[in-house]
Amino acid sequence: MRVVPRRDDDVQAAELPRVVVTGMGMLSPLGADVARSFDAAVAARSAVRAAAPDISAGLAGMLAAPAAVEPAALLDTADAGLDRATQLALVAAGQALAEAGVEPDPHGAERFGVFSGIGFGGASTLDAMFSRYFGLLLGDEAGRRRATVVHPLTVPRLMANASQGLVSMRYGLRGMGNTYSVACSSSAIAAGEALRAIRHGYLDAAVVLGSEAMLTAGSMVAWNALRVLARPDAADPAASCRPFDRRRNGFVLGEGAGALVLESESRARARAAAPLAELAGYGASSDAHHLTAPSLQGQVAAMRQALEHARLAPGDIGYVNAHGTATDLGDVIEAQSIVEVFGPAAQGPAVSSTKAVHGHLIGAGGVIELILAIQAMRTGVLPPTAHLGDVDPRCAVDLVAGGPRRGCRIDAVMSNSFAFGGSNACLVARRVARCDPPREIPS
Question: Where are the beta strands (DSSP E) in 29-180?
Answer without folding.
Answer: 49-50, 63-64, 112-117, 178-180
